[in-house]
Amino acid sequence: MGQVTGLAFRNTWRRHFSILVIGISACFSLAVGQTTTAALVQTDILSYDCRRVGAYCQNNKTCIETTGRCDCDRDQNYICENLPTLQLAEADYNESVHGACTNSSGHIECVCDEGYYGKTCDVPRVDVECNESNMTVYINPYGIFEGEIFVINGALKVKDACKFEHVSDIAGAGEDKEGMALVIQHISKDCGNTTLNQEYGNLNYTRDFFLEYVKEVREATDQLIRVTCVFTPSNRTVLKGTVTITDTQSEISHIDVHKDTSVKVTFTVTEKGSTNTDAIRLGQDIDLKFSMETTQNSAYNDFIITSCEVTKEGDETISIDILENECPTTTVHSLITKNLTTAGPVRPGTVTESMSMKAFVFLGESNSTLVFVCIVEFCEKSCIHPPKPCNTSNFRATHSKKRRATDNEQRVSAKITVVDPASQIKATSDLSTQDCLQQPSFIAIMSTLGVLVLLLLTLCIVLILRLLEARPKQSPPDSDARREPVYELKIPRISLTSANPNHHLN
C-alpha cells in the first residue's frame, strides 16, 4: 500500500484562538440580494475535540481528556478520529484533496483533514457567503450534532426567531454544503442588527454566534464564532468574509450571563409516603412528584405538565396516556386518588407539582415494570394552569402520538415495579408437598390451628360438665303411688216384690 504524495497532514495541535479567513475576489460588484461566488482561501480550521458530544473516537480508541484528541496510530498513517472518509477512483484523484490518502491498486481512500469535508474534502466546516443585505452562515460540526447554534445579541442569545436549520431546509443553499445554516439580514428586527464599523475605509458587518454542543448546557468546549463581511464603501464590492472561532472558557464566560437555562425538573414515582419503587402491591397508592429549583437568574420560573404516559418496560407498544395538559384521561380517571396540585412559582425557591393514583398492571400481566414518561413545558414567569379539578367533559381517552421535547420543554421519566399478590399465591401452590410442609409460614399456621383446637376441646368439656351440674334433682319414688290398682266387683242387690203386699221375700 503506497501513500499518495503531495499531501500534508493536518496540524495536530488544537487551536484555542483560530482565525478562519476566507479570501473573496474583489472583482464582482454586488446588487442587493446577490450572493458572492469566489475562490476560498482558508488559512485555519474549525478544531476537532473528541470531548464534545458526537465527536467520538473510532475503532475503540481512547479520547485523551487533557487534549481532546484520540490516541490514533499515526505511524500507520491512519486517523481514528471521527473525521469524514471518502473513496476515490484513481482517475478522480487530484492534488487538491484536503486529506490523508492511501492508494491500493488504483483504489484511493482518503480521510479528510481537520476542518474540511465534502466529495474531495475541500469544503470548510465554517463558511460564510456575504451580500449587501444579508449573510449566509454555514456551520458543520463534527459527528452527530444534537446541540444548538444561535445568534448572540449583546449578552443574551436569540433563539426562537433566529434558529439555525439544516442546510436542506435553506432555499438557495450550496449543493456541497452540509450541517446547519442560517440566512440572516444585516438589519433585523427579530435577530438584532449587525455591528457596523469602519476599518481602513471599509465597512465591516459583524455578528456573533454561539455553538452549543449540548442543549441548554454550557461547556468549556463550546465555541463562540464571530462572522464579518467586509465591503468597500464606494461600490459595495465584497472584499472578504472572516470567521473568528474561540473555544476557551475564559472567552465565552460572558455569554448568557443574565439567563440561566440549565434549570431542570426532577421527577419521581414512589409508593405513597415512602421512597420505595420496587414490589409495590397492586392497588397501593403511589405518588408522582415534579420539582424544579429556581434562582434569581433562572430563565424559567414555572412549568406545566403537557402530557404524561405509562409504558411497559421493554415494550413501548403497550402504553396508556394518564395526563393531558395536567388533566387525567378517561382511561385512568378512576385510578386518581389525589388530583394534581401546584405550589409556586417562587424565585428563588422550589416549584412543585404532585398527584396520587392507584398502582396498576397492564391487562394480562401479573407483575409490571411501569415507565412513566412526561413532557414538562417551561414558562418564563407563571404558566397558565388549567383550573382544578378538571372538567370531566374535557378528559381525553385517545392515545397521543409520541413526540420529542422542544426547546423550552423537558422529557422526564421514572419507573416502578407493581406486583399482583394473587400471582404470589399461585406461585407458591406449585411447591411439592414436602417443601410446603417445611415452609415456616405453614408450620406457624398449623401450630396456631393446633392451639385453637385444644382451646375449643377444653371449652367443650367445661360446658358439658357445667350442664350436668345444672340439671334439677328427682324426688324419691312414692310407695302409694306405685301400688297396683284394686278393682271391686259390686253385685247389685235384687229385690223381688210379690203380689201380696204383706208378703216379703228377703
TrEMBL record:
It comes from the Eukaryota. SMART domains: ZP (SM00241). Residues 129-397 form the ZP domain. The chain crosses the membrane at residues 442-465. Keywords: Disulfide bond, Membrane, Signal, Transmembrane, Transmembrane helix. This is ZP domain-containing protein. It comes from Lymnaea stagnalis (Great pond snail).
